[in-house]
Amino acid sequence: MAQITPTIRVQAEDFDAAHEEALLTEGRRDVGAVVAFTGLCRDEDGTLDALELEHYPGMAEEEIGRVAGEALLRWPLVGLTIIHRHGVIRPGERIVLVIAAARHRGEAFAAAEFLMDYLKTRAPFWKKERRVDGAEEGWVAAKSEDDAAAARWAR
Length: 155
Prior knowledge:
Elements: E1 7-11, H1 17-25, E2 33-40, E3 48-55, H2 59-74, E4 77-85, E5 87-89, E6 94-102, H3 105-121, E7 125-131, E8 136-139, H4 144-151
Parallel strand pairs: 1-4
Antiparallel strand pairs: 2-6, 3-5, 3-7, 4-6, 7-8
Helix pairs in contact: 2-3, 3-4
């Protein structure tokens, strides 16, 4: 199987998931399954005004690339796109996109889930919540259930 180069972007701008999937699959005849996950900012029952996401430019892309490489070693993917936004993101806006393309659905599902578990727990991003009432919430801590989900991928 040919080595693929994943598309990895960390950006402030919004993205179009359908367009990204089309870029990954257009003209391809070897793709049998595409699993796409889009993470959205939720309003936390009306209390959240926005999330503020920070990262270290260069380091974030490099670390996401390292984990994408691990996914490519674990599953025979034929395409992979990962986009993560930074900056101020309001409820209903997109935060993250993972698209895994494979010959079979099992590999695509597993790779996408693995990558999202990593992005949720260990990617070098920091989130601060801006509340509707103006309260300072500080930086968001990792959740134990997210850590438990990621732990199942340990070799």
